[in-house]
Amino acid sequence: MSQAVGKIKMPKKSKAKIVKRRSSDNEQLRPKQSRLKHSNTASPLCFQSPLSLFESFIQPMETEQFFRDYWEKKPLHLQRSDPSTAFYFQSLFQLSDLQSLCSQGLEYYRDINVVRCINGKKKVLNKEGQVKNSVLNKNLVQDKATIQFHQPQRFKNELWRIQEKMECFFGALVGSNVYITPQESQGLPAHYDDVEVFILQLEGQKRWLLYTPTVPLAAEYSLESEERIGRPTHDIVLEVGDLLYFPRGTIHQASTPAGVDHSTHLTLSTYQRMSWGDLLLDIFPSLLCDSSKTEVSLREGMPRRLLLGSSEGLDTRRRLVSMLRSLADEMETGMPKVRSTHMKRDFIMNRLPPYSQQQLTPSGKIPSLEDMVCLRFKEHVVITVEPSQERTDEATELVVFVLHSLKNQRESHMMGESYDEKVERDISRGLKFPLSHLQALQQLQQVEQLAVAQLQLPTQEEKLSLVLALWSESLLVVL
Questions:
Q1: What's the rounded Cα separation, in Å, for the pair 430 and 364?
Q2: Residue 408 · residue 353 · CB < 8 Å
Q3: Residue 15 has pLDDT above 80, yes or no
């Protein structure tokens, strides 16, 4: 792995110096360099593991320092002056890539937004239907508009490779957008986002103004008026290869300086709806359901006419507080079990599949009772305990689901889907086992390798059936 040479630069409060470049007389905002190929571009990133990828992504900053001093706290600007590093980041996406992709049926709104900030307001210049390269050039040159390209990892292999490892590292979805902005122009007004943001400068320069959050760690996107945001706390100009991080809720706006042909930057975003509050919303329904089976007090009827507002007094609040305290005490003892189901399922079903240029199929020999085995793609697998989805007249039965992202479609990553598509995908992306198989599945998840005979199941038939099911789903390999 080639090493990026750079220095950590704290964002300065004084205006950064802008380096101007001379543009050609017959300017069409087309890149002067030839299109770069990843196969000929040495990567400064290390893909050996999710941790090594993130360590190399934020170098020379140390990962421990980043999470201690910056994550969810304050912005960070990293300058990387090494030419090979800049060359690599430039290869991730260029204006010429977008021009080439126009032949693949890109559509307005779904794939591309054309926007410009005028007097603090966002103006959308989208057409209808498919995007034409000639129209985009006009948007850039004549309209001085910003081209926002959604989720480029659907088309660019190296971005797929990066974001797949980042999703493993964070255990959360990682989306991206490319922004191409002509000189002396701004695409979006001042706003804040509900995601942690990493900006990579790919072409040209971009000037960023950051402001103190009005809603720290915001849980939703919002515009902010110039009257509310005050003076910027940071004024930064990003050069090719630079990285800028800021927490969700950070108010920001960005523009391309004069004398710069155009700016291309990549926004990587993560940790949307990943707060403690979101986790509580996820685990509480099943937690209350499980506790109600053993606690008579939770099954007692609430006061008459409570729903009509006739009994919402101090006694009702005290009763609810007492129940919550009792539930918290039980959680500390480990009973009942705390299960995050919906968040796990949403993540594993919507994330990128493992980075591979080939279709993933069962690997190696079929397992037998005498074999040593191990799970494949552990970071793409989650185990959940949920009610059986089968409708019966009997009491709800808990079962184990082994969910995975091996069959996820890279082309639809972070693009949204219809309800019917989601239901069909959820059903097809995993295996269902009896609750008695949970301990054996956890064995496989927690060790590097295991003898099939050592699986904690009562019969040889059940042991063999379990490993055959996992092998058939490409989740297990014989050593």
A1: 21
A2: yes
A3: no
Reply yes or no on whether the pLDDT at 2 is more than 60: no
Q: Tokens for 305, please give them.
A: 């006419």
Sequence-separated (6 or more) residues with CB below 8 Å from residue 300: none
Q: What whole-number distance in Å separates Cα of residue 211 and Cα of residue 221?
A: 15
The Cα–Cα gap between 250 and 119 comes to 21
The amino acid that residue 142 corresponds to is Q
* Model confidence at 326: pLDDT above 60: yes
- Residue 19 has a pLDDT of 38
User: Are 207 and 278 spatial neighbours (Cβ–Cβ below 8 Å)?
Assistant: no
What is the CB-side half-sphere exposure of residue 43 using CA atoms within 13 A? 16
Task: Give the H or E element holding residue 180.
Answer: strand 174-182
The three-class DSSP label of residue 190 is coil
Whether 254 and 205 have beta carbons less than 8 Å apart is answered as no
Inter-residue contact 63 to 245 (CB < 8 Å) = no
Instruction: Decide if 173 contacts 350 (C-beta within 8 A).
Output: yes
- Give the amino acid at 350: N
Residue 32 reports pLDDT greater than 70: no
Name residue 223's beta-bridge partners: 191
Radius of gyration of the chain (CA): 26
Sheet holding 262-270, edge to edge: 6-9, 76-80, 243-246, 196-203, 262-270, 174-182, 146-150, 112-118, 121-124
Give the whole-angstrom CA distance, residue 405 versus residue 347: 9
Burial (CB count <10 Å: 0-12, 13-18, 19+), residue 461: exposed
248-283 in b/e form (b: 16+ CB < 10 A) is bbbbbbbbbbeebbbbbbbbbbbbbbbeeeeeeebb
Stated pTM of the model: 0.88
For residue 8, give both structure tokens.
């950590």
Reported as half-sphere exposure (CB side, CA atoms, 13 A), residue 116 has a value of 15
Return the pLDDT at 394: 60
Poorest-confidence range of 99-103, 348-352, 354-358?
354-358
What is the pLDDT at residue 418?
53
pLDDT digits (tens, 9 = 90+) for 96-137: 999 899 999 999 999 999 999 999 999 999 999 999 999 999
Distance CA 87, CA 349 (A): 34
